[in-house]
């Protein structure tokens, strides 16, 4: 599906602006911006990097997402008069009024964003975005950019895990809106779980804004709203082709139901009349789209029989029933039983359409149950996943951070007693090294001015976390991981639709070596520093060890 | 603080409409609505109830929230032409075009919402909302209403637990935006954690839209952006009162720093000059609001000394420094050390302002660390909480459901092999029974037509989950739990601001008996059925046991 265009695209951009106004940030971004401004430092060129320190869900890889939304945010970043008026009321009274004029005129034309492309497979501690521009402006962007990538990347990675657990064949339906963390938690989830590997969403707004295929037929409430066949109206249906005389669908179905009870040895007394009425009524409304939920009372004693009876009647009139949904109990076992009955019907009534009926399973599916489901015998074609997918129950947040690495051309580094929390200074290039089978095996961080590593050439580098020992590597291929995606106020490449990005994601995951793709105890992926970058860190550490610091106390 | 009015109120309503358009729902709501419409049932009066089955976080109570947003949603519920055009493209081709005209004209004027008021203490299995109106319309509202109350109630309840763990004195700051599940996960969290007991938020948009007090001063990036005192500009500050001649703040601070090193036996060589420059620059920009983060390098060897030196210089010029923020390590121990140094300074320099300095602690605080923090000796005045608060790590979703209980005046019930999942049929009144000390001890569900239970009178009822044995109760007070909040398209009561609701919440929690308020292993709260409602359920169960069902197969 192509990128949504025209009205839908405008609606998407409008929706994002409404959901991510420039005030959706932390207050301290403004107090810091003011302090920079009042000391004349606000225009100093600065570089921030965005990365996460720990891989989510204990997995071997993540998918970086949210770039699309960041770009739309940057392009429209501008304070309204009302925004500035509010800021005036909350910033300290001492704030110079000229600062508000400065804010009023701000936009992102002086900001350059270099980023890993949307949906790329990424690893911990690799700088995924580099945001360069005037110190005060790039500081102001921190919270919004983090908010836009943290959850998008988390839920996209979660979806990819569900997809890996399910295997490539099953269709996956996202249906988490009602349990999502806020309306937009639901909307963001629908977009980024599609990118991560889901096929369909129940969320209509996500279909409207992002062009994602939507799906859904009925809930239990529809079934329980019926109590007798008298509520079915109209009771007739015109055949799909040929005869234009309406046929009494109730009588036809009733006949099929009697034969089914005989065939399957079912007890007519246990069949729920309200459920049959609901199915008939839905089938008359949507004869081409008959896929009812069949567990409102009892799948085996009522729902399945009612479905088959209505389905056979539809077939008789030239329609093809679509399938059934199971929403409780042991989905695997039930799906096998249901499929067996479908085959019996196909054979007994010689109805080919019963060969290809779809079985949808939805019942609080977690990654764990998805893994179990793919190991057990089952006949489920479509799996619907809600709560565990969208709220990422196993780990509901990703810890992307935004760290200053350079000011006025001079590298900056944050030290920490916890070595994991120290930052890697300087403006960088990031390369992905591939082995001779095309699998990525290392991401390499270099200083920007260094020449790129060459395919087939051996060089030494320092793996992060074990910086004492250099390691020799010889990549078969080298690719640059990031690209300039925003500069001079413009988005540099055409934005991809959700489904275009989704296709890239799937091939990107396919290129991963199985040892990094495994859901359980994957091998750690190597991230390394170039020799020059490693030396820069050593120099800065040495420089900070006393030397010139503190001496300012003695100076005049 | 009063309800936001005028422009801010309009902005809030506009924001909600943009975040919760009527397409933000599941597709099956439309296919069901069509099936009702095409069988002429769409106008049948129907009643849905909204409730959750399991209390979140293993707690004794929850806070019901999101009503405010539901009301704004209902009032503005209307499909645009563009919405309908999209629906036309995704609903099955067989859909009668007249249905889209029906949708185009839809609004909620025929819907009546009875609800527990915003922020009320509530319990599992009590119907919190009753949505009555035309079957197709109330069906269409399901997903949006669930989405609006599920996360709001969850995060509000989570905030209340943090507040209980922290005790009443500490100020609590919500600062989770960057880790929230989507932009609106952050915005919703800011509003509903304030209602649940937090004092402040870092989220500027939440301050703008909801009037919540905002707070924040500086991040580590601000500190690390400075490397030397030469970057401080201007270097002077005019005293707060009296002398208008600018004073060289660097010299003044440097003198204080030398004396501090002597006083505290600190090593000048370990003091970071960039950090001092950052503090000075911030203090010159905001001399009345000096609250730096002091752990960028080392609290005890650098940050604390730099803070005290600048703080003493500010005091000398007639300003009052505000305090410090600690963002890593053992917050309790550090806060005690910091307070001790503040007292030493107060005594040594005779500076009263150092008596009342604020210590803010922020470092990945969870409910568990908050509990520990309140048990250990510490001097923290303000605790900032982010990720664990807003993403509700312990349980990231609440399972509110929306079940049909009546159609055309006739009660509906969903059976389930799992008794917990069966619904309680019929249109109801819900009463809260209080004991003679004013503590609630039971919520009672009655049929709407029953007389209300009377204070001081003994009657029998059937506790849910143990329906076989009747129990006698004598309430000292009886209150009606729900009220009509929306009808004929109008919101019936003035909407409360976040802070007004917050005040109600706190008194509502205070009325709870400690056995229901305890964070660990609270006692279960009783929810019971009236005798008549209990009998209705028995009758329906008996009626469904065969009898008339199935017989339709034999009829003509």
Oligomer: homodimer
- Please indicate the count of domains of chain A: 2
The average pLDDT value of chain A, as a whole number, equals 94
List unreliable stretches of 5+ residues of chain A.
none
Instruction: Give the overall form of chain A.
Output: elongated
CATH superfamily of the largest domain in chain A: nicotinate phosphoribosyltransferase
Discrete helix count of chain A: 19
Secondary structural class of chain A: alpha+beta
Helix content of chain A: 25-40%
**Largest beta sheet: strand ordering of chain A:** 14-13-1-5-3-20-21
Taken as a percent bin, the fraction of beta residues of chain A is 15-25%
N-to-C terminal Cα separation of chain A, in Å?
A: 68 Å
Major β-sheet annotation of chain A: 7 strands, antiparallel
- In the CATH scheme, the class of the largest domain in chain A would be Alpha Beta
Round the Cα radius of gyration of chain A to an integer and report it.
Answer: 29 Å
According to CATH, the fold-level topology of the largest domain in chain A is nicotinate phosphoribosyltransferase
Question: Which architecture of the largest domain in chain A would the CATH scheme give at its second level?
Answer: Alpha-Beta Barrel
Number of strands of chain A: 22
Short note summarizing the structure:
The structure is a homodimer of 556-residue chains. The first copy, chain A, is built from 19 helices and 22 strands.
């Amino acid at each position: 599906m192509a990128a949504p265009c025209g009205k839908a695209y405008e609606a998407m951009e409008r929706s994002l602006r409404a959901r991510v106004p420039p005030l959706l940030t932390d207050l301290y971004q403004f107090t810091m911006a003011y302090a920079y401004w009042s000391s004349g430092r606000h225009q100093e060129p600065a570089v921030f990097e965005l990365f996460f320190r720990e891989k989510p869900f204990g997995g071997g890889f993540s998918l970086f997402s949210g770039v699309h939304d960041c770009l739309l945010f940057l392009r429209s970043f501008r304070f309204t008069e009302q925004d500035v008026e509010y800021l005036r009321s909350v910033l300290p009274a001492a704030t110079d009024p000229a600062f508000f004029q400065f804010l009023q005129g701000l936009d992102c034309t002086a900001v350059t964003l270099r980023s890993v492309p949307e949906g790329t497979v990424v690893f911990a501690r690799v700088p995924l975005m580099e945001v360069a521009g005037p110190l005060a402006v790039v500081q102001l962007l921190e919270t919004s950019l983090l908010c836009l990538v943290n959850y998008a990347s988390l839920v996209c990675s979660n979806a990819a895990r569900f997809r890996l657990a399910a295997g490539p064949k099953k269709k996956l339906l996202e249906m988490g809106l009602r349990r999502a963390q806020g309306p937009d938690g639901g909307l963001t989830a629908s977009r980024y779980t599609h990118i991560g590997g889901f096929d369909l969403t129940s969320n209509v707004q996500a279909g409207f804004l992002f062009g994602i295929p939507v799906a859904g037929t009925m809930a239990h409430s529809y079934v329980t709203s019926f109590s007798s066949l008298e509520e079915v109206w109209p009771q007739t249906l015109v055949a799909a082709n040929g005869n234009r005389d309406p046929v009494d669908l109730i009588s036809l179905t009733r006949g099929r139901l009697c034969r089914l009870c005989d065939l399957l040895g079912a007890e007519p007394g246990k069949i729920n009349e309200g459920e049959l009425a609901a199915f008939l009524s839905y089938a008359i409304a949507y004869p081409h789209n008959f896929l009812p939920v069949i567990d409102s009372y009892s799948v085996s004693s009522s729902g399945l029989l009612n479905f088959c009876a209505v389905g056979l009647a539809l077939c008789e009139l030239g329609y093809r029933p679509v399938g059934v949904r199971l929403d409780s109990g042991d989905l695997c076992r039930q799906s096998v039983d249901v499929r067996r009955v479908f085959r019996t019907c196909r054979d007994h009534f010689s109805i080919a359409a019963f060969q290809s009926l779809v079985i949808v399973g939805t019942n609080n599916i977690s990654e764990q149950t998805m893994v179990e489901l793919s190991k057990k015998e089952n006949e489920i074609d479509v799996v619907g996943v809600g709560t565990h997918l969208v709220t990422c129950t196993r780990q509901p947040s990703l810890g992307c951070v935004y760290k200053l690495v350079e000011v006025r051309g001079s590298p900056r580094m944050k030290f920490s007693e916890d070595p994991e929390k120290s930052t890697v200074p300087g403006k960088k290039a990031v390369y992905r090294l591939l082995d001779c089978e095309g699998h990525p095996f290392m991401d390499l961080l270099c200083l920007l001015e260094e020449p790129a590593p060459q395919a087939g050439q051996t060089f030494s580098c320092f793996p992060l976390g074990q910086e004492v020992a250099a390691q020799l590597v010889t990549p078969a291929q080298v690719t640059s991981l990031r690209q300039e995606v925003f500069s001079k106020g413009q988005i540099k490449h055409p934005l991809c639709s959700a489904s275009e990005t989704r296709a890239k994601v799937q091939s990107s995951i396919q290129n991963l070596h199985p040892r990094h793709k495994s859901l359980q105890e994957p091998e750690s992926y190597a991230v390394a520093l170039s020799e020059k970058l490693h030396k820069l860190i050593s120099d800065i550490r040495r420089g900070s060890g006393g030397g010139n610091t503190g001496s300012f106390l003695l100076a005049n």
